[in-house]
Amino acid sequence: MSVLDLVLPLQCGGCGIPATAWCEACARELAVAPDEPHLITPRLDPGVPVLSLGRYAGARRTAIVAVKEHGRTDLVRPLAAALHTGLEHLLTWGVLDAPVMLVPAPTRRAAARRRGGDPVTRVARAAVAGLPGVAVAPVLRMKPFTRDSVGLSSADRQRNIAGRIRATGAVGGPVVVVDDVVTTGATAGESVRLLQTRGAEVAAVLAIAHA
Fold first, then answer.
1. Containing domain of residue 104, as a range?
2. What are the angstrom distances between the C-alpha of 14 and each of 31, 117, 196?
3. What share of the chain is helix, strand, coil (3-state, %, to 5)?
4. Of the N and C termini of the chain, which has fewer Cβ atoms inside 10 Å?
5. pLDDT in tens, 59-73
């Protein structure tokens, strides 16, 4: 352990072991398998395929929470690497064709301010590096005073989010909605609906994790 570690204790963002930001065991847990992402079926169908890189559990869950709630911006890199690999697979399989635009799912303004910006957008921007024809368009925003959906049922989440997302610009061509976690599918569904009403061709929803 270095003197710097004693001054600023470093812990793995996945399992908490000391002296490393991201350990090899957690890296293996987050790694995208050759057959991933997988097609999932959220409780609320957004009308397009929903794909996920893995379950919202273990090191994956801890890292996502650490980025969102504890300011661990150093963990954007491993999450982005996983998303990058997932996108590579979808492009190789022909599920997606470049050019394609990634549209991050929206977050509440208060949450974004507290987190120093939108972590999903940061992860998406880092993930597209080295992927020709893949770009990021953060055009979705939550309207003010949108309630946090944590703890709400599927029906309540859908009512809570209905009409609460706005678009700050148009997006042409194929679009993939990207999110950190798909729970019920309410946010994904409302995002897809709004983009489609503005003329976007939404090909899929891609999540780093699903609950």
1. 33-210
2. 13, 21, 36
3. 40, 20, 40
4. N
5. 999 999 999 998 899
For the chain, how many residues are written? 211
CATH number of the domain enclosing 39: 3.40.50
Q: Of 142, 204, 129, 131, which is closest to residue 168 (Cα–Cα)?
A: 142
Is there a cis peptide before residue 37, judged by omega within 30 degrees of 0? Answer: yes
In a domain, 139, yes or no: yes
Name the strand (E) or helix (H) holding 210: strand 201-210
Q: Which two tokens stand for residue 33?
A: 């398998």
Is 204 among the domain residues?
A: yes
- Quote the pTM value: 0.87
CA distances from 98 to 43, 111, 174, 176 (A): 29, 32, 8, 11
Task: Determine contact, residues 32/85, Cβ cutoff 8 Å.
Answer: yes
Domain count, the chain: 1
